[in-house]
Each structure stands twice: as C-alpha cells, then as structure tokens.
Amino acid sequence: MARAFFASKTSDFEITSAGTLVLEGQPMSIRTRRALASYDLSEPDHLSRQFGQSDLKTDLVVAMEPSHILWMRRHFPEMAARTGTLPRLIRDFPKEGNFENRVATMGLAEVEIEEWEEVVDPAAGDQDVFDRCAEELEGLISRFAVKIL
C-alpha cells in the first residue's frame, strides 16, 4: 500500500516494494486491493518480493515496523544507514541538501528504534483493519512526500 500511495504522489523517484519475510510471487490480497481502490489506486501487477542483494543500491529503505529495521541491520548491515521507519523519516528528515546527504545526516544506523515508529500491519485483519491502515498510510505518505520533494 505504501508504494502505491507514494507513487501516486510523485514520479521523481523510482519506488519499489520488498519485504523482510515474504513468500515471493504472491499477489496482493483482495483486502489490500479494496483498501487501495477506495483511493482510486490499483497495483494489478504487484507480486510479493523479498528484499535482497539486488536492492543494495537503494537510496532509502522506508520500513513500516521496528522489526523491519532490526531485520535489515542483521541481514544487510550495509543498508542500516539508509533504512528508517516511515514515522521517523517524517519527523527527522532534514530539509536542506541533496537527497543522499540528507539521508546520511540522519545517522539511521545508530538510531535506537522506538515503539512509536510502528505502522501497524493489517496482516489477517478484516477489511476495516485494512481500510484503517490505508487511511493511516495515505496520511503518512502525504506528509513524507512533502518533506522529501
């Protein structure tokens, strides 16, 4: 959902989606599709994908949960300085400088991750849980897009 919302806000960045513990090649759930459709968004070709070696040139990894940060630090420590949670990036992303320097000055590899940084995964929830998650993500992504553009 986050990728779809961000892509709807800007074409200035290449935006991909990858997970930390996924079954690769799975289509988006019908509840996710319905939640996105309420914002006139769709991702008909989306298939789940595991973060891997091909993602190491990514300029910024936007995580939704503290556990994602810990996973990245453990499995891809070289990405730790370019991986932050969406709530932290919204709060702390610098206003000045080029994108790479702005990310670097955040010190993301050393940041202690806190509970407030989690965007709750709707997982196996009912449609209303997915709809609430979509509403939260739309607001967060809108705020983040303003900060980085």
CATH topology, which one?
A: Rossmann fold
Report the mean per-residue pLDDT as an integer.
96
Taken together, the total number of domains comes to 1
Strand order of the largest sheet: 1-2
Q: Shape, please?
A: globular
- What CATH first level would be assigned? Alpha Beta
| Topology pattern, helix = H, strand = E | HHEHEHHH
Helix content: 40-55%
Strand content: under 5%
Rg, Å, rounded: 15 Å
Note the main sheet: 2 strands, parallel
Note poorly predicted spans.
none
CATH architecture: 3-Layer(aba) Sandwich
Q: Decide which structural class fits the backbone.
A: mainly alpha
* Head-to-tail CA distance between termini: 20 Å
CATH superfamily: Response regulator
Please provide the count of β strands. 2
What is the assembly state of the chains in this entry?
A: single chain
Q: Given the structure, what is the number of helices? A: 6
Question: What does it look like?
Answer:
This protein has helices at residues 2-9, 30-37, 66-75, 86-92, 99-104, 127-148; strands spanning 61-63, 83-85. With 149 residues, it is mostly helical. The protein has a single domain (2-148), classed as Response regulator (Rossmann fold, 3-Layer(aba) Sandwich), CATH 3.40.50.2300. It is globular and about 40 Å long. The mean pLDDT is 96. A two-stranded parallel ribbon has the order 1-2.
